[in-house]
Each structure stands twice: as C-alpha cells, then as structure tokens.
Amino acid sequence: MRLALPALVTAALLALAVPAHAAGPSAATVPSGDGPSSTVPSATGPSAAGPFGPLPPHNPYAGPDGTATMHGDTGSSDATPLPGPGPGPLDSERVALQSACPTVLVGSDGRPVALCTTIFGLVPTVHLLDPADGGSVAELPIAKGSLLGGVYAYLDQDDRLVVVDGNRDLLRIGHHRTATGAWALTVDSRQSLAGAVPEGDTVTGLSPDWQGRVWFATGGGVVGTADDRTGTVRALALPAGEKVANSISTAPAGTLVATTHATYLLTAEADGTPRIAWRRTYDRGPGRKPGQLSWGTGSTPTFFGPRTGTEYVTVVDNAAPTVHLLVQRTADGSEVCSVPVLRAGGSGSENSPIGAGNAVFVASTYGYPYPRLPADAGSSVPASGRFSGGLSRVDVRADGSGCDLVWDTSVRSAAVPRLSTGDGLIHTVLRRPVIPGTDATSILDPYYYAEIDPRTGSVTRTHYLGAGFLFDTLQMVGSIAPGGVVYQGTTTGVLRISSAG
User: What does each C-alpha distance from 406 to 35, 269, 339 come to in angstroms?
Assistant: First the structure.
C-alpha cells in the first residue's frame, strides 16, 4: 500500500463538530454489505485462526515483530504475534494531529512513534505518542520531498525511526529524555543517498537486511543499499519505465521489490552492490484501476510460508477484470499458483497481502475514494468505480502443488487488515455507506473497528469509531501494540482503540 495524502482540507471540514472521544455501540451482528448477516461467535484464541505456521523470522536490525514496520515485520507479513483488545466493551479516542498518519510503529520500550504528513503544508512530521492516551509528547518536522515520499519507515533495533527525508538523507531518529524530563525527538545519524538517488527521484520503500545494511527503492526504479556504519552506498537501476510504487520486504534469502511491471528478488555482493536473483513479470492490465494509485500491482510484496515463514512470496496483479493472487517460490521465483480473487465486489487492490503459514488474505480497494492521487497516476480504467469491498483467503496446498480459494466475502475494509496470531483474528476498519444497502460513499460515511474470523471471513465484532472525513482511514495500516491497544492512522491523526475495562 502507498498512501495518497489528502488535498488541502477546507476550514469548513476542519470545523466539523465531531467529538474527539467516540465510544459508540459494539455489535456482534453484521449488517448487509459486511459479510454474512448471522451472529458469529468470537474467536478467542490462536487455535481459532487455524493451523497457521510461523511468521517471517525476526530481523536483528529491526524493532519488535508485529510493530517494527508498517507491515508488521521486514517480511511484510501484515501479521503480529500480539493480541488485540480482547473480549468485552471497547473504547476509542481520536488523537487530532492535523496530519495524515499512515505509519504508527511501537518499539521495545512500548512507546508509539508516528510518521505523519501535515494537512497544511504537507510537511512530514514524526510524533512520539504517549502510550497511556495516544497524545503527542514530542514532534520533529523533517525535510519535505514528493507527495508520497517518506511514507514508509521502520524502527531499528534501538527503537530509532529509520526514514529518508526530502533531501535524500537516510535518518535515524531517536527519542530521548531531556534534562527537564521532557521527551525530545532527535536526528541521531544522517547519511546522504544523493549519489545513488537521482535529483527529482524519491525513496518509496526501505528495509534492513540481515547484514545491517538498509535497502531502499525509489519511485524511479533505483534499488540500493546503504551502510551508515561505513558510509557505503551502492545502487542498481532497474529496467527503464519500471516504477516502484510501494514498499519493499527483506528476509534472509534477499530483498523483494515489486515494480509496476515485475516482482524481483535481489541479493547483494560483498560490497553491498545489488544484483537480481530472479525477475518475474505479471499481468498489469490495461491501466490503473479506480481505487489504486499506480498502473501495476498495489502490493508491497509479502514473504510467507508454513515452515520458515519465507518459502513463498506473494503479490496481487492488476489483471482485468479480475485480479489474481500470485504465489511464487522464494528460491527461484517459480510459480506455485495464480488464483482469481476479490470476486465478491470490485476486483483490485492497493493493499499488501497478509501472509501467515500457508494462508494469504487480501482486501479490495477497488473504487476507494482517495481525496488526491499521485501526479503521475494517470486516468483509471475504467474511469470510475464503486467501492463495494471484498476480502479473500487463499491457501497454498501442503505439498506446494497449487493453491485454493477458501472464501471470498464482501467485507468493506477501509484499512490494510492485520492478522493477530495472538488472538486468532483479523483486525481492520470498515467503511459503511450512509444509505444502508448501497455501495455509495460520501464524506459523512461512518467507520467501525472490526474483527474478522479468518476461518470463514465473517465479521465477529464491530465498534463505532465516528463518521465523516476526520475518521477516514484511507486504506492505511493499523498497528496492535502491547496491552491490546490498536493504533489506526486517519486523514487527520490517529485513532486509539482499546478495552474499556
């Protein structure tokens, strides 16, 4: 997923009288449009999620698994070992930061760090949040780049935020107590990537490898490594015309990069110079679909597998009219399967798949009404589409001979779903229409935190968050923090969802 930041918000929208504390009704039944309408018992333990295998191995140069990256870990599993809020009444609060906040990460000290972009001025800003209530206790603006630059970041093993700013500098931003006891955010180290990243290009994804180097990919199709211990930067230009519109993923086997034409596994020479281990093209369709931000896959590629957590890789293509979940073997890129998915509603996805064990889950973003698109997005094909929603599960067969579509629902997810192996549930946010039974969208739509049973695709519990633009989760990712607290970015700040007990 790549975030489309909103255009400047009018004063009238900012003045909407929406309370900062929204604790609406919780419901176990599911209205039309979110899956089966019957009441489904909540899954309460890991066994309820089925026999999921391991998640990708812990990267020693990243923070805690589940909260170190936007997609949970450096393998981009979009899964976490941490459980959500648990049964019982829920509470939610809106932390107003006057910014779109696509990234909320949590380090080993339990302190959330949010990377946001201000509504006015579009300035990337790092916030340190209070784990008790989600409020910002320190902030640090960083150099502004392109509209979409700086969205992806990760926490390193010392809980520092690693990000590339608009000056093409690789920063490690730490949080520290001052002499007065207040918190402060500081740039602890800086390394220039200007020699590898061309003028006018920006870094769209970065992730550490198992040697401590930072891999990066740019929108213009440059892939490289940076070692801020030695000052070494090495780069490789991918074929002309291929863009990188999403983040990248790392595992012991190498670095996954999905361009607008193909999926790559890259490794590095001893000096850090990237080399292509394999490249596999996919069906990119006739053009960008409505609800996507570029012409090609919308996936950050995902490592997954039932034995090591990395035997397979997966992305969603852009085939028309129905997209396919593609699964390939990490070792050589050979195809395991190509399965049509998201058939219940619009078939297209800007989201990274969830991968855990032999199971993959993918959500539809087809027709999602982004307030703003990248300058180079181009016209969509077709010109418009309704946001009907959709969520599919595909399992790789135990013998690796192929894959099977397990279920396909019309769940209307407005965020990148996150699987918890700690509670056996998928956590996301639903966007429901003001007029029930339709697939229309408006700035008055209500939003609900939701838990989904991965065995069936049924929504098991919802909790009202609020209505209107202030609560739009814009297909951003939620993070589950220790203590069962969910942090979900919105167009104007962060939602904090927790047990009311």
Answer: 15, 41, 11
- Report the phi/psi class of residue 432: left, alpha or beta, with left for phi > 0 and alpha for psi in -120 to 50: beta
Q: How far apart are CA 427 and CA 424, in angstroms?
A: 10
Does the predicted model carry a pTM greater than 0.85?
Answer: yes
- The answer to whether residue 10 sits within a structural domain is no
Range of the domain at 474: 26-499
Residue 103 in domain: yes
Q: Is the dihedral of CA 412, 381, 146, 250 positive or negative?
A: positive
Cα–Cα distance for residue pair 402/400, rounded to 1 Å: 6
Integer Cα distance of 450 and 237 in angstroms:
42
Helix, strand or coil for residue 12?
A: helix
Query: How would residue 346 be classed by pLDDT, with cut points 50, 70 and 90?
Result: confident
| 138 phi and psi angles, rounded to 5 deg | -160, 150
- Tell me, what amino acid is at 201? D
Secondary structure (DSSP) of 17-58: ---SB----EESS--TTSS--S--PPP-SGGGG-S--PPPPP
Strand order in the sheet with 312-316: 302-304, 312-316, 324-329, 335-340
pLDDT digit string, tens, across residues 431-465: 999 988 888 899 999 999 999 999 999 999 999 99
In this model, does residue 418 exceed pLDDT 80?
yes
Structure tokens at 201: 């290009």
pLDDT at residue number 66:
97
Is residue 91, in this structure, part of any structural domain at all?
Answer: yes
Among 263, 271, 316, 324, which residue's Cα sits nearest to residue 292? Answer: 316
Any idea what the CATH number is for the domain that residue 386 is in?
2.140.10.10
Where residue 51 falls among pLDDT bands split at 50, 70, 90? low
Contact 499, 85 (CB under 8 A): yes
3-state helix, strand, coil in the chain (%, to 5): 0, 40, 60
State the SS3 of 249-292: EEECCEEEEECCCEEEEEEECCCCCEEEEEEEECCCCCCECCCC
- How far apart are the two ends of the chain, measured CA to CA in Å? 34
